[in-house]
Design goal:
Pfam families: FAD_binding_3. It contains nine helices and 16 strands. By secondary structure, it is α/β, with parallel strands linked by helices. A hairpin with a 2-residue loop joins strand 8 (133-139) and strand 9.
């Protein structure tokens, strides 16, 4: 093709789904990912997909790709949350309506890593590993990505920053107005064979330990009935609370994270213990819980050749599972605008940002409000 490619910074979910939109419209693109492979870092917890998120994904993928994606998703009976005291095993409320809508009366979920690999399908030859984008350079008729080693990309028609909460593209584009805050909360992600979850049964569960003087400890997990008897499969859980990683290093994965999770839950009810006693230690990972400003996505002077998607522009807490669902809406919206124009056209980034600020800002506010009420997260003070 004669047109310049669209450059994409980062190979996460939002970036890869956006690439799928370009692929369907035969618009050239190149993706630059800082990691050397998908296996360098943990992919994080399992995602629950809202109706809005599913609609966005379906609008981007071909019918065949969509069916393959949806078949890979797990579907849990939509009975809603059940909350328990983690130490006594007592149910602390009755089943409540699920806050994240899903299809056919089911809660739909998929592991981040599996979702990422599905979105990569067909884009492999355009993904460049070990390319850490640290900024960009505008040219008279395009833009180039600048890498950490001082080299630059080929000239593109547009640069889309989708490299997450530490996006250097977002910082440069917004003049520092886009900020990510440390909520002070920490988490551990873990996985165990599905048989470890049989004591819970099917549903979405929240376990709370309020006996700790340093603060409450929470676990969220999702159990799918049809997979519960297959020991070859794994379910994930997410632990949130006053957790401190060794040497304050939240890049630690594996046994150290697993050992801390086991020690924190040592006095929990026997019904819940298998989730930790039988966990796959190599899959355990620490993480910091961050959030963009809940006051809304800030305004910056639009740059027609550069924009941002996903966590790079609206990072959220895990409360409500809203973040990834909003990120894929970015991918679908920007992909649709570019597809309808047949490629890059001036005015596309301004139109995208105007619409994204509305739903993206509302999503951050909602997620932060839920985190304050259910996870004990306080006021946002320090940026990361």
């Amino acid at each position: 093709m004669s047109q310049k490619p669209i450059l994409i910074s980062g190979g996460g979910l939002a970036s890869l789904l956006f690439a799928q939109a370009l692929l369907r419209h035969n618009i050239p693109f190149e993706i630059y990912e800082r990691d050397a492979s998908f296996d360098v870092r943990g992919h994080g917890y399992r995602l629950r997909l809202s109706d809005e998120g599913l609609n966005a994904i379906e609008s981007v993928l071909s019918p065949e790709s969509w069916q393959r994606f949806y078949d890979k998703c797990g579907k849990t009976g939509g009975s809603g949350f059940a909350a328990f005291n983690a130490v006594t095993g007592e149910q602390t409320d009755h089943q409540t309506p699920e806050t994240l809508a899903s299809r056919d009366g089911k809660i739909v979920g998929i592991a981040r890593g599996e979702m990422r690999r599905l979105f990569l399908d067909g884009c492999e030859e355009h993904l460049h590993w070990s390319k850490h984008v640290v900024g960009y350079e505008l040219t008279p008729d395009g833009v180039r990505a600048v890498f950490a080693d001082g080299t630059k990309s080929i000239e593109g028609s547009l640069l889309v920053g989708g490299e997450g909460i530490h996006s250097r593209v977002a910082k440069q584009l917004s003049g520092g107005k886009l900020k990510v805050y440390d909520t002070g909360a920490r988490g551990i992600h873990g996985q165990a064979p599905t048989t470890a979850f049989k004591g819970l049964g099917e549903g979405v569960f929240r376990l709370r330990d309020d006996s700790r003087p340093e603060g409450d400890l929470w676990i969220i997990t999702n159990v799918r009935a049809k997979d519960m008897d297959d020991p070859s499969l794994q379910f994930g859980w997410t632990m949130i609370g006053p957790i401190k990683a060794p040497n304050d290093d939240y890049t630690v994965v594996g046994k150290q994270a697993a050992d801390l999770a086991k020690s924190l839950t040592a006095n929990w009810d026997p019904r819940f213990k298998p989730l930790f006693d039988e966990m796959v230690e190599s899959e355990a990972a620490f993480w910091k819980i961050t959030c963009s400003s809940p006051n809304g996505v800030p305004e910056w002077t639009n740059e027609p050749r550069v924009t941002v998607i996903g966590d790079a522009v609206h990072s959220m807490t895990p409360a409500g599972g809203i973040g990834a669902n909003t990120a894929v809406q970015d991918s679908a919206l920007l992909g649709r605008l570019i597809g309808e124009a047949g490629g890059y056209k001036e005015g596309i980034t301004a139109a995208y940002e105007k619409e994204m600020r509305v739903y993206g800002g509302n999503a951050v506010k909602t997620s932060y409000g839920m985190a304050k009420s259910s996870m004990g997260i306080g006021e946002l003070v320090n940026t990361i």
